[in-house]
Amino acid sequence: MSISLASSSSSEISYPSSKNLQHKNEKLPVSKCFVGLGSSNKQNRQRLLSRDAGKVGVSRPLMPEHVKESYMGEKYHKDEGIQKTKYVRTLLIDNYDSYTYNIYQELSVINGVPPVVVHNDELTWEFLQHYLYEEKAFDNIIISPGPGSPMCPADIGICLQILLKCKDIPILGVCLGHQALGYVHGARVIHAPEPVHGRLSEIEHTGCNLFLEIPSGRNSGFKVVRYHSLVIDAHSLPKELIPIAWSSSANTTSFLENQKVTPNSFGENAKLIMGIRHSTRPHYGVQFHPESIATCHGRQIFQNFRRITIDYWSRLFPVSKRNIHDNAWMQMQLPRASRVFRGKQLKSKPLVNGVQAGKTLSMCKPVNESLGARFLKLKWKKLDRLASQVGGAKTIFCKLFGDGKAENTFWLDSSSVEQRRARFSFMGGKSGTLWKQITFKMSDKRCWVHASDIKAKSGGYLSIEDAKGFVESKFLEDGFLDFLDKELRSFGYEKKDYEELPFDFCGGYVGFMGYGLKAECGMASNCHESQTPDACFFFVDNMVVIDHRTDDVYILSIHENAYPESTSGQALNSKNKSWLDETEEKLLRLKTAATIKLKEKNSESDVPTPQELGFHAEKSKDQYMKDVERCLNFIKDGESYELCLTTQMRKKTGDIDSLGLYLSLREKNPAPYAAWLNFSKENLSICCSSPERFLQLDGNGTLEAKPIKGTVARGLNPVEDEQLKSQLQHSEKDQAENLMIVDLLRNDLGRVCEPGSVHVPRLMEVESYATVHTLVSTIRGEKCANLTPIDCVRAAFPGGSMTGAPKLRSIEILDSLENCARGVYSGSIGFFSYNQTFDLNIVIRTVVIHEGEASVGAGGAIVSLSKPEDEYDEMILKTRAPVKTVMEFQRKSSVHE
To answer: What residues contact 748, with CB distance under 8 A and at least 6 apart?
Structure first.
């Protein structure tokens, strides 16, 4: 196929005269000038975004030059000239994609004001037309990527009408939006020669205004990330559409620059269209993703579109200007809230230093005082360098909380602390007067509904047991997360109580959220009912903390004090002080050489048959591989970029010593986000050896996610081990998996973080554990001041590494493929502290023991490069440590009978 590059004139677009405009009597929007970002503001933004720059510890030669700034969290490029002195107000149409808020973050900084985000089915054309042409609320429109096809009305929504009717408003379509621009004018949208997701291509272009100051062609340094299975057929382009960019060859490459290119199957001369523009309208489209962390010059493309917008309106109406709407968001009064935090839409305030003006954060009082504050007081003691003297964390837990079956106990266990992956372990049990257990089970009224129509579909039954054993039950119409949000917002406290502690968790809720709570986070309702509770937490008022870095031990106790200045608080102090003293005495009595040997317990069941010794898989190897093939077909059709397919393995255990099992698991497979939870009344124990953090909010308001994608077994010897590690780090498939999830987590954090603050301090580092090597990335951002911890969780749950992308469509597909509920697996374990911080893991590498049965979940990310046999082998690899531990522990127990 031969393609000639179109020439580009200086004006590029034949601008219509005002008499040809759709509303010819109206003067369309021209953005009002404002005071730009000064040098002091740039310095402040530099401090905000580069705070972690000195902490990066990866091998920098592997890091492509074009992402070093964003990777290190460094400042944004200067925007020159007119860019510095104008607002540009963007309407961002979200096609239910998982990368839309990466565009939102970029535009918030580049445009000087956050865009307004609406779903593609949220507004009628009549409603939108009013704000575009009568209120003149927007200067341009961006149509997001998304799953599916522009030929399917459910996938594209109002976007086709916008492209047809907004002839006189600048529009940029990204990926699906690009295909929609072609399709609406008569071009054919067809399957690409092969799906390309999370992989890079070099781009050549015409030098048109959208690509100003961007190099072109092979070896130019202009590489872009592609997430698509469909393309515009170049032979079908109508004369109104002009191609402006192509893939410079038929090859793709992995993210790391030193990776060799991978030839596609369709020949060197078959270049694909990567960009188009309309000949007479200010409409553009790009097939690739400029918002991806790995796309070169992506920010420049958005800056160029900003310039195009300003220049367009200046040419049409060089004299007329108008006042900017201070809050287009509130004016729109959307019929349904598209944001994750309903009723908390952010105002479109001007940006200063890349964040919203007037940001304040008070961590020392309840966020919502109308709920009736409960003032909590904290008392604590520090025992210097005691942990190793008494035998370490295992000895401390077993002596203080491990008697009997360790009922109603928890242990957030940083059992793998090498390379400073984790530092603190938290442990405790039922002891103080404020202790309680909350157990939530979702209602069985489950139905499939469109995400934008979800209302009170996720209600359920809550049971609350207090320290005296009194149980209260209630039905929660608004679901568990709303309940937990109100609980956390009701706490009053004094920062001085904990400001000298080196950790964030000072008491509060410890437990797990099951995968089924996705129904409260904007996902379609569950089609599989979990046998375990959907959430279970202790309210912890007394606990022990171990600092593995310094070997110090802390003892903490909180009590409720309704009147901080009254004598009743002093009486409570005296009562809680006795617990502190008693625990301190127990710790000091432990001998240096203390070791714990737990009493083995006999199983009440009969001696198992050989068939019962093994785990029963919910899916056979053949069925799992067929499901991988089905995933590949969904990916080929553009329904998803990546699907995290999972299954469960189960085994009857009888009355197993679950704490002994956990101690064996942590010894064989130590992990930084390991955990033990025992909810005795639910007959539920969780033995978790997870290496993955889901999400953390620290005391400074920083959110952090650490997704894992890419796993390989350890080698049998040091030479083989290094070879396998290197293969993982340079695998195009594994890099594509990781990159897609990094972009997804950037999106999820971008929904609740200050504009300009989301960055990636570590990208695709290899972390090594007892049985596997993994690829791990770190994403951080600064939480918006008016949002709560639960808002942040709701924006990102369930973790993207366990779903795929785009998240919503991927979850719907996975629910149709998987034949049982994931339950605790794929959810999160961790804490919500009363001081508005939290830290949650991803529940993987975990044995869940419920009512005499052990279950182990496992899976893997299916991408276009996946092979069914390899995916099955990877899934089995991930079950190896927990399954082997159960088998060996049971065998050892039977020997001692």
So the answer is: 98, 101, 705, 795, 796, 800
